[in-house]
Amino acid sequence: MRCLEKFATNVIKALKRDDFDAQKFSAMVEKNEELLNRCGKATLYDSYPRALQTFVEQCMAQKGASSAKNELLHLANALEKFKKAKEYKRNKNDKNFDD
Q1: Which residues, 6+ apart, have CB-to-CB distance to 5 below 8 Å?
Q2: CA distances from residue 66 to 23, 40, 53, 70, 71 in whole angstroms, order as listed
Q3: CB 29, CB 59: distance < 8 Å
Q4: 3-class secondary structure for the chain?
Q5: By CB neighbour count within 10 A (0-12 exposed, 13-18 middle, 19+ buried), where does 22 fall?
Q6: What radius of gyration do the chain's Cα atoms show?
Q7: Which residues contact 76 (CB under 8 A, 6 or more apart)?
Q8: pLDDT tens digits for 25-78?
Q9: How far apart are CA 26 and CA 6, in angstroms?
Q10: Which candidate, 61, 71, 3, places its Cα nearest to that of 30?
Q11: Whole-structure pTM value
């Protein structure tokens, strides 16, 4: 799980840079792919780790395509939105009155 998070954050940072270079991006993905292979695969049951794993697999599948930046950015934004939605809880019935 930690390796997947590290891979995803590196990919997202690279995609959001203004000076995006497809060759540097593919080299970075290959380097991180080797790190993932060292960690090994684990069976993931929760929804966020599964979404994270599919995002990483999409990145590895499209590492050579220079036109995949927009699609990967869309997937990355959806992943971040999914993560934030699980963290946010609204206090509906919480009555805090400051006097």
Answers
A1: 52
A2: 8, 28, 21, 10, 11
A3: yes
A4: CHHHHHHHHHHHHHHHCCCCCHHHHHHHHHHHHHHHHHHCCCCCCCHHHHHHHHHHHHHHHCCCCHHHHHHHHHHHHHHHHHHHHHHCCCCCCCCCCCC
A5: middle
A6: 17
A7: 8, 11, 12, 15, 55
A8: 888 888 988 888 888 777 778 888 889 989 998 888 887 666 778 889 999 999
A9: 16
A10: 61
A11: 0.76
Residue with tokens 């959001």: 16
Looking at residue 91, its amino acid is N
Question: Which tokens belong to 77?
Answer: 């934004």
Alpha carbons 45 and 30: distance in angstroms, whole number: 26
Give the CA count within 13 Å in the CB-facing half-sphere of 6.
Answer: 11
